[in-house]
Amino acid sequence: MVFGGEIMKQKGIMEFIKDRRVILLVVLLIGSILAISTIGIQQGLDLKGGSLIQIQLEKPVDTATMNTVTSVLDKRLNIFGVKDVKVRSSGNQNVIVEIAGVQPDEVSRIVGTPGKFLAKIGNETALTGVDIVSVESPIITDTQYAVPFKVSVEGANKFAEIAKGKAGQPVDMYLDDKLITSPEVSPELAAGNPSTSVQISGGADSKEAAEAQSKELETLLKSGALPVKVTIVGVSSVSPDLGDQFGQGALIAGILAVLAISAIIIIRYRAPLLVMPIIFTTLAELVLILGIAAIIRWNIDLAAIAGIIAAIGTGVDDQIIITDEVLKGKSLKEQKRRRTKYKIKSAFFIIFASAGTLVAAMLPLAYVGFSRGYTGIGVLSGFAFTTIIGIAVGIFITRPVYAKFIEDIMD
Fold first, then answer.
1. Are strands 230-238 and 172-175 parallel, antiparallel or unpaired?
2. Are residues 253 and 387 in the same domain?
3. What does the pLDDT look like over 381-396, one tens digit per residue?
4. How many CB atoms lie within 10 A of CB 310?
5. How confident is the model at residue 30 (pLDDT cuts 50, 70, 90)?
6. Cβ count within 10 A of residue 169
7. Residue range of the domain that includes 287
8. 68 plus 129 within the same structural domain
9. DSSP letter at 196?
10. Nearest by Cα to 319 from 406, 384, 410
């Protein structure tokens, strides 16, 4: 009987290993680990440190104008080379810019500058920012720089018409009403021959300063002007030390939680064999969530961590529901395969109903946060989105594998 029991146990193990759900889980775990190790996990402002800049518009604006403001600011920061940036509106007159890993003095000018470009010949406006079609990379020569750009055919014709007969006169180029350069009208333009190629030149005290100024000018020309005047009303830095302390605290709390869960499972079921599958399933869910976050470049901040904790906590609850449904009222040896399958189906009915309710509660937060981006609601969208990912990973991947383990190994 013992020999036959061992054969049945080995057969159950082989069936479990060969199951397509188990194979899929292993493949996804390997892929997630590779994604985490190669792509890396994006850390939010809470963990990595960085800057929080509060911007106030000169007047309240409608939704379309606010969307233009946030779009221009986001484009500027991406062109300028700033990574891990979040730009979101706060009401109808304020914008919050979160930048992980960058100090505020590096980007304040870029964020707070309207970016209005004008080129004048005498008192006549020859070009505006609307006429700019594309901006090329700056040309640096020692402490001198030039930023070439292309204008539309209509803009070039308008410029040539105003410049006609004015050879040698200055073309005053302004950025936010500040004169930045004054090249002379060329004889070709004065003769009425339009050109779509224009450039802004300037100089600085050093090559490094010339590179910085030209990059800033390139960014402003590429992103276009803000539709309203903006003012920076608050700048604050977040130290990465806080993130380090939280990370250490989260690690300690995680270890204590694993120990507590293990103790409860042993006391509740008197089956130490159940501890490892439940803990493994929990860790697998964590790795898969982080792997997805790495692939889609989702920032892991305090809200996202809260979502991961909520999803994993729900996962442990679901595993206990499965275990209770299969084992309640009987010892392990008394379980029959047909009865086990029936109870697993019953458990999954409860799990899917619970998951559906939780996802339904999270979707409004995620939708409103992404579509509106308001302060607070935008943070909650991170919590909701991460929770939904965790629930999806659990009900479609890890919990079916755990159920298969109960069916084949514990039967």
1. unpaired
2. yes
3. 677 778 888 888 888 8
4. 18
5. very high
6. 14
7. 2-44+239-408
8. no
9. S
10. 406
| pTM confidence score | 0.60
Tell me if residue 152 falls in helix, strand or coil.
coil
Query: What Cα–Cα distance (Å) separates residue 299 from each residue in 164, 177, 379?
Result: 54, 38, 11
Pairing of strands 50-57, 139-141: unpaired
CA–CA dist 17, 6 (Å, integer):
17
Q: What tokens does 62 get?
A: 């409608």
Contacts of 255 (CB under 8 A, 6+ apart): none
Cβ neighbours, 10 Å, residue 342: 13
Shared-domain flag, residues 296 and 403: yes
Q: Where are the beta strands (DSSP E) in 58-207?
A: 85-90, 94-100, 117-121, 124-128, 132-135, 139-141, 144-151, 172-175, 178-181, 197-203
User: Phi-psi bin for 101: left (phi > 0), alpha (psi -120 to 50), beta?
Assistant: left
20 and 57 part of one domain: no
* Tokens at 405, concatenated: 């383990």
Whether residue 151 sits in one domain with residue 99: no
Total structural domains in the chain? 3
Closest CA to 380 of 299, 291, 306: 306
Give me the amino acid identity at 154: E
CB 117 within 8 A of CB 130: no
User: What DSSP line would sit under 35-95, residue for residue?
Assistant: HHHHT-PPB-HHHH-EEEEEEEESS---HHHHHHHHHHHHHHHHHHT--SEEEEEETTTEE
- CA distance linking residue 205 with residue 150, whole number of Å: 28
Phi, psi of 239 (to 5 degrees): -75, 140
